[in-house]
Write a structure and sequence with these properties.
With 336 residues, this protein is α+β, with helices and mostly antiparallel strands. Helix content is 46%, strand content 27%. Helix 2 runs antiparallel to helix 5 and helix 3 runs antiparallel to helix 4. It is rod-shaped, with a radius of gyration of 45 Å. 16% of the residues are buried.
């Protein structure tokens, strides 16, 4: 009889404990701290010349993380700047109008070619007559073939000389006419477009050079480091992964029977196994609208059920101590 009474008392104590554990103020669920992870990639390719952090290091926003070889980008930038200077000079000259000395120089060139052409025509007439006379002498046997061939070669050179000078004269006269007419609006527009293209290339080169320096977009901890100094990376390569410790949350899974006790913006108490003496605050920011099967890694003080609802709790206090992966208990209400 005493044994039966002892068993009854034991069972009674057990169920009373369970009832206390399931009270509204004591309702708790376990979960693991999670945080946003940001993959930091390289927008350009190249050889890594410098890495300033290691896995596990804390980093600050805008802190230098990785430096890529800048030689190719710097060369393109210098070329672009030189192209801008040349384009600006041509446009400035065109807008200022044609200079008098350039017109005078073009006139002098035309006059010189005309004088040379006049002399070349005289030489052509001379060798034309001489070739005709020596041809007759060759037919009579008065001169040898070698002598005649020399005269014929001189005639061909004289003809070529005249043709070349005539072509040069046409080009020089055309250039003089353009200089005397001045720069057309189409020519000015072409020079402006050339300057714009050069400026665009400079901006692109500056952007490429800037992308050789990779900085952290946020405060956090380096959780993954994929490359070392001296390695060649392709555009888009994931260089590092940084965890944003300011954006921490905990996913808990609540059975349907307890779902009505949870509401958006409910304040909760968070206690971590690593800091059992501390109580951190949190807030409910998401309640699933559909049920799902209980994840295998969920640990709760409630009996497992087939389906549960996910609730996301944002960590409001303790991000300086809590770390992703830590197990914590989430309590409703103001009591543990």
């Amino acid at each position: 009889m005493k044994k039966v009474l002892l068993v009854v008392i034991t069972l009674l104590v057990f169920f009373m404990a369970m009832g206390c554990e399931n009270s509204d103020d004591q309702l708790s669920y376990s979960g693991r701290v999670e945080a946003t992870e940001v993959d930091i990639s390289s927008e350009v390719g190249g050889i890594i010349t410098k890495i300033t952090v290691a896995q596990g290091d804390e980093v600050q926003k805008e802190q230098l993380l990785v430096k890529l070889d800048e030689e190719a980008a710097s060369l393109k930038l210098r070329e672009a700047k030189a192209a801008i200077e040349a384009a600006e000079a041509r446009l400035k000259e065109a807008l200022a109008g044609t200079r008098t000395q350039r017109i005078d120089s073009a006139k002098a060139a035309v006059a010189s070619i005309k004088a040379n052409l006049q002399q070349a025509k005289k030489d052509l007439d001379f060798y034309t007559q001489k070739e005709k006379r020596y041809k007759e002498l060759l037919e009579k046997g008065a001169v040898d073939k070698q002598t005649y061939d020399g005269i014929e070669l001189a005639l061909q050179k004289a003809k070529s000389r005249v043709e070349t000078l005539q072509s040069q004269l046409a080009q020089s006269q055309s250039q003089l006419e353009l200089l005397q007419a001045g720069n057309t609006s189409n020519y000015i527009a072409m020079l402006r477009a050339e300057l714009k293209r050069a400026t665009t290339l400079k901006e692109q080169a500056e952007l490429q050079l800037e992308k050789c320096t990779v900085t952290s977009p946020l405060n956090g901890i380096v959780s993954l480091k994929n490359f070392e100094e001296g390695e060649l990376v392709k555009p888009g390569s994931n260089l590092l992964t940084v965890i944003n410790l300011q954006d921490q949350w905990i996913d808990i899974y609540v059975p349907q029977s307890d779902l009505g006790k949870w509401h958006l913006q409910d304040k909760v108490i968070i206690i971590a196994d690593a800091y059992p003496e501390h109580k951190f605050s949190g807030e409910v920011i998401y309640i699933a609208s559909e049920a799902e099967f209980t994840p295998k890694n969920v640990q709760t003080k409630e009996a497992r059920m087939d389906t549960v609802f996910k609730i996301k709790v944002k960590v409001l206090e303790g991000t300086d101590k809590l770390r992703p992966g830590m197990w914590v208990e989430v309590y409703r209400g103001d009591q543990q």
